[in-house]
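Exercise: predict the fold of this chain.
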Amino acid sequence: MQIADALRLAIQHFNAGRAVDGTDICARILDLHPANPAANVLLARQALRDGDRATARRHVDTALAEAADYPAAHELDARLKAEDETADPNTAERAYRRTLTLAPGQWAPWYDGGNLHQARRDDPAAAVPFYRRALTLAPDEIPPAMNLATAQLKLGDAEAALNACAHTRARDPNHIRALALETAALYDLGRADEADRLVGWGGLTRAVELPQPDGYPDIAAFNHAFAAAIRRHPNRRDDWDPSKRAIRGGAVVTDLLAMDDPAIRGFGRALDSALRAYVRALPADAEHPHVAATPARWALDVWANILGADDHQTGHIHNLGWLSGVYYVAMPGGVRADDPEQQGWIEFNRPGYGIPHRGGATLRTLFPAAGMAALFPSYVWHRTIPFTGTGERISVAFDLHPR
């Protein structure tokens, strides 16, 4: 097989999600031609998807040494420099300018350049023209529309942000981030009734009690055993990546249900029962995006958060879910139902990700009573109000993913 044909086949594999097959073909190409720019770029992209920045850097450098003006290699070079928080942002900006000079008609460098201004330079105004240019070149691409809407909300241009959300929802009516940003824009525009309908407080967003798992005299005994299982879980991590999670401080337990433990198994069964009851109780409202997207089948992603004093979760949404929620296992003494400051409570509708709350949102709170779960559409903004004092706040978060 000729190298050009092998590269086409490798690209087909990568595009179809067959990374192992694509990587294998590229490796064989490099056995024959170690400096092949295209194969090195394909492997660099896969390394970035795998979180291996060092390998990506090595392949990019090899590609550029062989082909100094190869646009795809310059695009990855700029992205690596932009994502390196220890590097000077000016270095990344020069790399993007070089990429755009070589390939002005490609949308991705414009999008990445916008991200550099918005994320690294905290300059959403400078990012806007980059996102607009990306959308001009690729109108069906959703990421630049969503980051454009975010920048416009930061700048106070809610009407423009709403237009960007409509642009996305015309292509994906139930897009989670578009619905979240649309909610924030509607609140900013004084259209609280429309935003509140999306949130569905008391119906789509509500507190529920999970069925008590068998084998325990009461819910307090179950939660005591459940908390102990969470604390000793082998997946407990104190060194999580803050760019990928909303938690600030504390510890995370990923893939919670993977541990074979009676309390964890009991929780899994109780959660499944509560989720099925939620779906059965949904109103017959085909015009509501959350209801319209109700899945017939789903998978669950479940993890635990262990917070101490001053730890909290910033405002966020769950991009990959349809329905999300949190079950409260244990609360420290300082988190009280009669606390006027509502320390440790969960708050809804205040936007996150650097989007300011301009006073128009209908803020809602729930006291996180041990044994209670809060359920909400995955696009609903939520955060944990920080608390002081001693003790641990243990909760279990989950996403229901359509499949």
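Check your answer against the key: The two ends are 38 Å apart (CA to CA).
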